[in-house]
Amino acid sequence: MDGPSQQPFIPLANTPTRYGIVAQTFHWVIVALVVLQFVLGIHAHGLPISLERLILLARHKSIGFTIFGLVVLRLCWRLYSPPPPMPTVPQPLFRIAARLSHGLLYALLLSMPVVGWLLSSASNLTVSWFGLFSLPNLVRPDRQLAHWLLFTHQSMAWLLLAVVTLHIGAALWHHIILRDDVLLRMLPCIRGGDRAGNRQS
What we know:
The chain is mainly α. It has one domain (21-200): Fumarate Reductase Cytochrome B subunit. It has 5 helices and 2 strands; from the N terminus they run H-H-H-E-E-H-H. It has helices spanning 21-45, 51-80, 92-122, 143-178, 194-200; strands at 127-128, 134-135. It has a two-stranded antiparallel ribbon with strand order 1-2. Strand 1 and strand 2 form a beta hairpin. Helix 2 (51-80) packs across helix 3. The protein is elongated. The chain starts with 20 loop residues before the first helix and ends with a helix.
C-alpha cells in the first residue's frame, strides 16, 4: 500500500524511525515563533517612531527570548533523547552540509536574541519579557554601537532566512527526490519507516 499510514499514538521520546511528541512540539512551536518574528520585525521596521512601533518591538524582543529558552530546552532534550539517525545519502558532503546548517541554525537562534538585547541596551531601551520582568542593560548607551548592532541583527535575520530556506529545500529534496522519511518523521500522526518500507516492497 502506497503512502504513509496514520499512527494514533506518537511516542514521547524520539525513536530510531521518528521524532517524538516533545521534539515535534519544540520544532513546530519554534517554527511558528520565528515566522511571527519576521512578521513583527518587518512590520515594525516600516513604521515611524510611535507607540505602535514600540509595542511591536517589545513583543518582538519577548518572543525572541522565548525562542532562546525553547532552543535551550530543545538542545537539552536532544541530549536526553537523541534524534533518529540520518539516512544514508549518495554524497557524504551532503551529510556534512546538513550538520553545518543545523549548527548554524541553532547558533543564530541563540545569538540573535543576545544581539537584540545588546542593541536595546546600547539604544538605552530596557528589555522586558512580556512585561513580567525586565532584563538588565548589558552596555551603556552608545549610538554608534547601536547602529552597528542593528546592522548585525538585521544581517543575521537575513542569514537565518537563507538557512531556513535551505533547510526546507533539503527536507523537500529528501521527500521528493530521495523518497525517504526525513520529512515525514517530523510530521504529527505520520509513522516513520513506512515510506522506506514501501520502496522496498
